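In keeping with the milestone schedule agreed at the kick-off meeting, the structural modelling team has produced records for the first pair of proteins. Each record is given below as a sequence line and a structure-token line. The laboratory manager (R.T.) confirmed that both were archived under the project's standard naming scheme.
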Amino acid sequence: MRIVLLLVISLASAAVFADGDSAAGMVKAGKAVYSQTCIACHGANGKGAIPGTPDFTAADGPLSKTDDILLKHVIEGFQAPGSPMAMPAKGGNPSLTEADVKAVLAYLHAEFGK
């Protein structure tokens, strides 16, 4: 039995993919959300486009934390110790859903994870 998963991403667009393609579909949906919401601060290369933004490519960076912690930080907002600025809840995009954030995490791991 194939299960269809529907992710609603920002700007009211949607990505629909079958269970067998869920990993690739999550990454694709996450890239779309990242490109619309996260890229302004985190940059296309994940190294941070503005001072104080963490580097996703660093071995000891944010991606070294569990997805549960990262999900909480994105949804609630977070200020890293020593950082001069905080990330606002949902990256400043109140329309993001938990599914959107999970898709972004899948993209981050695929694109920048070691």
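The second protein of the pair:
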Amino acid sequence: MEFTAKQIAQFVQGRIEGDENASINTFAKIEEGKSGAISFLANPKYAHYLYNTESTIVLLDESINVEQPVKATLIRVKDSRDSVAKLLQLYASMQPKKQGVDSLAFISPKATIGDNVYIGPFAYIGDGTVIGDGTQIYPNVTISDNVKVGENCIVYPNASIYHDCIIGNNVILHSGSVIGADGFGFAPNGKNYDKIPQIGIVTIEDDVEIGANTCIDRSTMGSTYLRKGVKLDNLVQIAHNTDIGQNTVMSAQVGIAGSTKVGEWCMFGGQAGLSGHIKVGNKVYAGGKTGILGNTKDNEVLMGEIGMNAKKFFKVQAVLRRLPDIYKQLNALQKEVDELKKQHENNTSK
């Protein structure tokens, strides 16, 4: 498919500088530009690539000054990152969707399959399961009994959805993700551990995306919840009975312990960890490897192993870098104090 600069500018509400009939058929990073590609420039520190790029069209933030002649046609927009995201969404929506049920798939006669569904080879659909219209189930997916999967979902190869779980509309589950495995529930009895049956489910609301090899545990009772718009990266662990608020996002290897409630619009960096049975407010931001050990208020920015306020964290880090020098000074002061005490004792004994 080809699009002209004029068509793109109309779509993203941009202003053309150059040839409005210039056409593109692919995307490229600005430093790897090629003829027939569209690139974008949002960060001024990469502006030098603009003057040599081979891309035919470049989306450019209005705030960036052009100081040399440019071969590419420019489209000025308020936010080029947002504009290129919209173009990529448009491009993806135009790609043909797979349809039909492969002869090598197993579908229980007690399952209900919607219209325009794709089910790939060696996929398994259990008793009583419902698959909504337009959903795509890729090869080797296992969907157990009595699961409800909404419309226009994508379940990539080797993902597993355990029994009774509920998946909303427009949900994407990447390869290897596991929805509804048992929560980590064991009770010590003095000799070993008694398993506590996990009889709850997982409920995933609309527009959620879950990365590869991410695990969402079923609840002991009731449900583990991922609310509308949640986005999880690869290798994230969500424990039983948690409730993750709308539009919260988590980078790779984040771990959430059981019975924790996370607010809306939170952002957690890679390897952040949350203790169990706590409540995290709305719009809480945690840097990579941050440990959140207790309840938080709304709008907090946390960093460090004990999840301290970001300003305090950076002050602590500044002191940590000086610790060797501080340690030497402390030793020197201790020697002076010891010498003064010794002199005082000698004077008082005379």
